[in-house]
Design brief:
- The chain is an alpha/beta fold.
- The protein has a single domain, classed as Oxidized Rhodanese, domain 1 (3-Layer(aba) Sandwich).
- A 5-stranded parallel β-sheet has the order 1-5-4-2-3.
- Strand 2, helix 2 and strand 3 form a beta-alpha-beta unit.
Length: 103
């Protein structure tokens, strides 16, 4: 069982609206993000996460997003193992997202 907290898409929407500094990372592949991403999300495909973790500040809050929540959970667990203490997974991924999309 993972120790990564899950956050609902509705809670993620509130964080975007409140501009609270949370960094959203979409780990889907290029062709998936072409169908739209959550506003403010950064696109870092899952396979590239290991190449980018050293560039990300460890003291920020991160929410990881994918299509269904499985790949983003793997990315969140990886980041947690690398010393990121405030990492969450968006529950159900973009399949459960009903907010605005950016392209």
């Amino acid at each position: 069982m993972s120790n990564i907290e899950e956050i609902s898409p509705q809670e993620v929407q509130k964080k975007i609206e409140q501009e609270d500094g949370t960094v959203l990372i979409d780990v889907r592949e290029n062709e998936e993000v072409e169908q739209g991403m959550a506003p403010t999300a950064k696109h870092i495909p899952l396979g590239e996460i290991p190449n980018h973790v050293d560039d990300l500040p460890k003291d920020q809050e991160y929410v990881l997003i994918c299509r269904s929540g499985r790949r983003s959970m793997n990315a969140a667990e990886f980041m947690n193992e690398k010393g990121f203490s405030n990492v969450k997974n968006m529950q159900g991924g973009m399949l459960n997202w009903d907010g605005e999309l950016v392209f």
